[in-house]
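Minutes, project huddle
Topic: does the predicted pose make sense with uracil bound?
PN asked that the exact inputs be recorded in the minutes so nobody has to dig through chat later. Recorded below.
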Amino acid sequence: MRLDRFICKSTELVKYDAIQLIHNGEVFVNGVVVRNEAVQVHENNDISLNGQKLAARAFRYMLINKPANTLCSNVDGVYPSLFSLIDVERPSELHIAGRLDANTTGLVLITDDGRWTFAITSPSGQCHKVYRVKLAKPIAADAGESFLQGIALQGEQELTLPAQLQIITPQEVLLTLTEGKFHQVKRMFAAVGNKVVSLHRESIGAVSVDVAEGEWRYLSVDEVQSFYT
Ligand code: URA
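Predicted holo structure (tokens), as shared on screen:
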């Protein structure tokens, strides 16, 4: 991670103050003064501030069952931020690994580990996200095949990646995606002449939403690791 980020993660300093200290020559990496805040450092580097060795706090990983009418944003807007439901220190350090729309409910993963977020959100990670979708009309007979082949979404150059459709009832389906384009589920169903009336994310990879709406919990070590295998 960047040196300024490491300083913030190992002290109570905010980024601006960390950068000032680095520029002032008060930060040493492996015994050498470093004045560039963008330098990449690792946990096993010997990093000190004013002669005191620093150790970064552990990353945090949590899940929440998002209620409708909350925002996947660090600040409140038309609706309250999802973070208003999570009572932890330094919430501004956290971010959402795969946002949901304001009216979508279900599983949201939250962390301060950017590498982990990349493993979850990058299509190259092939991480499965399962959505339960209720539809305005019965699903078209050929929708499953269209989703498997890829859909041309309005304004997008590339087809969507192969997605799996499981029909529960004519108007309720499970859709599994490995990517997360803007409003993707709603746009996919619009492309096959239907309309999403409710959307709930049930799982991401091996992690399922298992707490009541509005509740959150930390992930287990195994759950965190599961996104790297
Ligand atoms: N696709 C959507 O259209 N909305 C979401 O919230 C998530 C996926």
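Observations noted during the meeting:
- The mean pLDDT is 95.
- The domain at 58-126+206-229 is CATH 3.30.70.580 (Alpha-Beta Plaits).
No decisions taken; revisit at the next huddle.
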